[in-house]
Amino acid sequence: MPLIPKSSYYDEHYRQSAALIRARRPYLVKNILTGTAIFGFAIGVYAFTIHAVAQDEFEDVVVPDAPSQPPHTPNVGTSAGSKAVVPK
Q1: What is the per-residue pLDDT for 42?
Q2: Using an 8 Å Cβ cutoff, are 41 and 50 in contact?
Q3: Which string of b and e fits 27-50 if b means at least 16 CB within 10 Å?
Q4: Measured between alpha carbons, how far is 17 from 13 in angstroms, rounded to an integer?
């Protein structure tokens, strides 16, 4: 028993038959033109985005200075059940 039921559009090796090629022929040019238009639109959006982002220099963004000393965080690494070690 075959896994895929027999179709009139494919032969025993699952290749396209002449009937399927004839049925798809009227749509071949329209499908190629539609695919080319969609592909061209996607490439155009990508190129426009890369061009728009590449020309931004970020000169108007203020970058803050680095802090001179890191902030003090007391009792880091101690759990609720252990005591903090206090230097003498």
Answers
A1: 98
A2: no
A3: eeeeeeeeeeeeeeeeeeeeeeee
A4: 10
